[in-house]
Design goal:
The protein is built from six helices and five strands. The chain has 159 residues and is α+β, with helices and mostly antiparallel strands.
Amino acid sequence: MKVSFRINNTVQTIHTDDGETPLLWIIRDVLNLKGTKFGCGRSACGACTIHVDGQAVRSCSFPVVLAEGRTITTIEGLGTPDDPHPVQKAWIDEIVPQCGYCQPGFMMATAALLNNNPIPSDEDIDNSISNICRCATYYRMRKAIHRAAQLQSESNDNK
């Protein structure tokens, strides 16, 4: 089976024998994009969060066949070293990561939240970001999410 999609602004066509293969494994093992992490394999932890057509999706349970014709963004496509996304900048500014394993998923979930709700309250964050961090950096992440909202607002004001 052939599946074509745009990932990080590049059109990709992959061949697979099983359309039910989770997109996570295509991203990591076929396309060699290692920023998206495997955590639980059950859509519970959020380490594998990516964007599909701008919406946060847990890629460990998203069959590759559903990627046909879609636009996918991974952490590698969120920003660049020279021009980081406001969420990436805020994560650096607030020194969020400890081990860092879950952070790409948190950043992708946050970017999707800010696209839908540019100035989220603490309650909005609690209701929207359900990822899990074993290092418990939640306080720093909340600060970073508010900082990212501010940076994104400033960026939009300058356009």
